Amino acid sequence: MNTPLPQPKSSAKPSWLRMDRRYGSQFAKTHAIIQAGNLYTICEEAKCPNQGECWQHGVATFLLLGDLCTRGCSFCAVKNGRPEPPDASEPERIAEAAVRMQLRHVVLTSVNRDDLPDGGAGQFVLTVQAIKSRLPFCSIELLIPDFLGDWAALECVLQADISVLNHNLETVPRLYRKVRPGANYPRSLELLRRASVFRQDLAVKSGIMVGLGEEKAEVMEVMRDFRSVGGCIMTIGQYLQPTPAHLPVERHVHPDEFAEYERIGRAMGFRHVESAPLVRSSYHAWKHVE
Prior knowledge:
Layout: H1 25-36, E1 40-41, H2 42-45, H3 51-57, E2 61-64, E3 68-69, E4 79-80, H4 90-100, E5 105-110, H5 121-134, E6 139-143, H6 151-158, E7 164-166, H7 176-179, H8 185-198, E8 203-210, H9 216-228, E9 233-238, H10 255-268, E10 272-275, H11 285-289
Parallel strand pairs: 2-5, 3-4, 5-6, 6-7, 7-8, 8-9, 9-10
Antiparallel strand pairs: 1-2
């Protein structure tokens, strides 16, 4: 008698992760503005599942300093390689796009640029200045790398005219070596602490992914850690494998569990918790400042 072979675990996405991919005219307008400016967005480079919704809403998250990252995190779709020097025209091109898109809240992020003396902090500042010169009443959110713990680079960014400082913790400490090689949980937590102390008027924000093999108790411990260093906005979303070469999804977390994390976060004292399967760092970011 033949023994049946074990069946592979189904990779099919549950119903709550299926997205409407019908895009309207505003999506095309957003795409045209980004193309005209020869700009990068994290929406495209990281294969964000919300690109269609956000671009149809007329918003996008601009990616500074090219599309090549000096790190190779095993969860991230952004390409790894040797980047070009910073483009001096990039800040003005982003500012022009923000004007054309009529943005009231701009989100800027970047690839990791461990090759630069300041980790790219100067390009963040120049871009903020360019946007503010064109849109003085627009709020700006920065999603920054850890600058390898260069606190002078962090302070440079914190002195800019911004409303939100975001740095993602990404996952629980136990999984850092697998998920975030090159990063360091205590260093990221210290960055967030310094931001909240240096600028007490600033909304300090962070986010994590779930579904990578973490336990619920570990997620809540990260939430407590972040709240203890002054965090006030937190995002929690489902990890989705961008390509077969990236880490597999260990578990599709049910929407009820995300709702539970939101309730727990509110009880901890967070001003806002955005927690749902398709949530990403910049998802509904304009609402976080409102």
